[in-house]
């Protein structure tokens, strides 16, 4: 469903008097309400890039899997995993204050061990001193509906119901409660559909620490 189609659907519910810009604003608000609630599977992205500039900051990269140039500070929501492919090494997250106060005092080798954030800016520590390939799995930071709609088309109606709820609330109309219920029903249906991608095996919890760290 395109943005124009969603605007037309709002018209069917009696909101022809609202300007298209106003309806777009309500649809955008509903969309952001949905996509920022959870780390949805449709937000996930995988890229691979080479770091050759010797700088710790990671911003403009070229995805070697697709050839696309990506500005991470505009699109990166959260890192799910970062792998140093060149050295077969897992780069782990750390807080900025820990990097500044602890690790910088004990930099013993050139192998990048951690990544951290200052606002939306991502940094590696220590900065790679030679050409290194990284593979990063991350969640995409959503943009306006005028730029993209990441929801699968089968669930676009949840955006419309969310916008209609807001439109009725603006008019102090009791119909808002009806559409709030419809929104929540559609939302739960979407959750059930998107989060359960296989029924072949139950979910497993993997131990991620060495057994020598366990307390018995």
Describe the structure.
The chain has 216 residues and is of the alpha+beta class. It has six helices and nine strands, in the order ααββββαββαβββαα. It has helices spanning 3-12, 20-35, 72-75, 96-101, 157-170, 175-195; strands at residues 44-51, 57-58, 60-62, 69-71, 76-84, 89-93, 114-118, 121-125, 132-140. Strands 1-9-5-6-7-8-2 form a seven-stranded mixed beta sheet. A hairpin with a 4-residue loop joins strand 5 (76-84) and strand 6 (89-93). Helix 1 (3-12) packs across helix 2 (20-35) and helix 5 runs antiparallel to helix 6 (175-195). It is elongated and about 65 Å long. The model has no long low-confidence stretch (mean pLDDT 89).
Structural class: alpha+beta
Shape: elongated
Q: Helical amount among residues, as a percent range?
A: 25-40%
Gap from first CA to last CA: 55 Å
The largest sheet, given as strand count, sense and whether it forms a barrel, is: 7 strands, mixed
Overall structural domain count: 2
């Amino acid at each position: 469903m395109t943005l124009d189609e969603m605007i037309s659907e709002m018209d069917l519910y009696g909101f022809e008097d609202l300007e298209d810009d106003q309806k777009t604003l309500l649809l955008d608000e509903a969309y952001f309400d949905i996509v920022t609630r959870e780390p949805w599977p449709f937000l996930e992205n995988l890229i691979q890039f080479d770091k050759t500039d010797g700088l710790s900051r990671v911003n403009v990269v070229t995805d070697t899997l697709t050839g696309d140039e990506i500005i991470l500070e505009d699109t990166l929501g959260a890192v799910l995993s970062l792998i140093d492919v060149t050295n077969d090494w897992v780069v782990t997250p750390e807080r900025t204050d820990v990097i500044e106060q602890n690790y910088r005092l004990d930099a013993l080798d050139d192998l990048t061990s951690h990544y951290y954030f200052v606002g939306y800016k991502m940094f590696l520590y220590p900065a790679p001193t030679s050409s290194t390939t990284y593979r990063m799995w991350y969640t995409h930071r959503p943009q306006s509906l005028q730029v993209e709609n990441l929801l699968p088309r089968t669930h676009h109606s949840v955006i419309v119901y969310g916008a209609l709820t807001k439109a009725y609330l603006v008019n102090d109309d009791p119909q808002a409660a009806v559409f709030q219920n419809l929104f929540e029903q559609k939302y739960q249906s979407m959750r059930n559909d998107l989060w359960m991608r296989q029924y072949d095996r139950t979910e497993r919890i993997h131990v991620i620490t060495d057994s020598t760290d366990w307390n018995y």
